[in-house]
Amino acid sequence: MVKNRLTLAFLLLWIMPCFAHSVVEEGGNYRITHEWKYGGRQWSSIWYVPVSLYEYYQRRAHVSDDMVHFVLSDYDRSCVQSLVESFRKGGEEVGYSDRDNLNNVITFVQSLQYVFDEDSKGEEDYVRFPLETLVDGVGDCEDMAILAAAILYEMGYDVLLVSLPDHLALAVNCQWECNGTYYLYEGVNYYYLEVTNTGWDIGEIPNEYRSCQAKLMPLINKPKVRVKRCSYQYDAYYSTAESVPFVVYCELENVGPGVTEQLSLRVLFKWSEMDDAAFVDRTFALEDLEEGNSLEYEARILVPRPFRGVIEIRAEGLNFGTDAMQLKGVDLK
User: What is the per-residue pLDDT across 14-45, written as a single tens digit (0 to 9) for each?
Assistant: First the structure.
């Protein structure tokens, strides 16, 4: 497990240039300074992020198949919570309302430099974890929305991720009067939040997205387990006319967020990939996986012969959706 530590000093300053971002490495930490302007005031923040924690997130997968797990990642929780405390303290000092505190966070994120992934990472699609965006000081719409969502979620705001064509934004359940574009989700109006540039208010949406259908993603903290690199072999030496011992090899990975509950590996031998029923169905209880961890397992199963079909391997548990892989073309006469 990676240890988290983020120390942040939050200062209200009146005379300084806005939208400045600098990073200096000091004694195994990154010292990050960022300045922005909100409500007629200039704000400045200073925080220290362990290089090891930043490098941990650099090693994680950065594909955009599940944006929510970037928002709710476990290992940077204390970092985000420290940042949240600073926003709260700064807001209390100047008498900010809940709406002002939210707008200050959004303006902070909007003040980070917008850069395409191709330019900043040399990749067509690279999704940053919140801590990466804080350190880098740059990102695209996905990175900005994920960072803003992580902060606002920890502050107790009810927000959703909003996926639009080639764009990611937020929507907030206003506890005060709001106007403009909103989405109805489970009986509640969530008002659009744009985070990629300064000047956008709650409910204001760029013209190109006004008529677009949006996919709304609630921030639900549950793991996502992937079945990876499965294979099999059978032992001809110990085979009989009636059965053959199989060994199924498989790797499972929890890409997060959170820890699995009652993780198990289920192995099914089926006559075809379309069959619902299996003539051999075995479940193996495994140790639960923390976010970002993986395990390898060998499942030993005695299979009646003859058999020609598929082996289906499933990762199952209480708090995540099932993931499966099929090994086809198994032929045992």
Answer: 333 345 899 999 999 999 899 999 999 999 88
Most confident of 19-28, 73-82, 84-93: 84-93
By percentage, how much of the chain surpasses pLDDT 90? 67
Instruction: For the beta carbon of residue 82, count every other beta carbon within 10 angstroms.
Output: 18
Residue 2 falls inside a structural domain:
no
C-alpha radius of gyration, the chain, whole number: 24
| Angle CA 12–13–17, to nearest 5 | 130
**Closest Cα partner for 3 from 83, 85, 80, 78?**
78
Residues 180 and 195: their CA atoms lie apart, in Å, by: 16
Q: What angle do CA 17, 19, 24 make, to 5 degrees?
A: 95
CB distance 330 to 310 below 8 Å: yes
Q: What is the pTM of this model?
A: 0.81
Q: What is the CATH number of the domain that holds 191?
A: 3.10.620
Is residue 40 situated within a structural domain?
A: yes
Round to whole Å and give the CA distance between 148 and 128.
12
**Domain stop point among 218, 252, 285:** 218
pLDDT given at position 258: 87
Pair (198, 313) in one structural domain = no
Q: What is the mean pLDDT of residues 225-244?
A: 87
Six-digit token pair at 57? Answer: 């997130």
For residue 174, the enclosing domain spans: 7-218
Q: How far apart are CA 160 and CA 68, in angstroms?
A: 9
Same domain? For 182 and 328 the reply is no
Question: How confident is the model at residue 241, as a pLDDT?
Answer: 80
Q: In the chain, how many domains are there?
A: 2
H or E segment and range at residue 58? helix 51-59
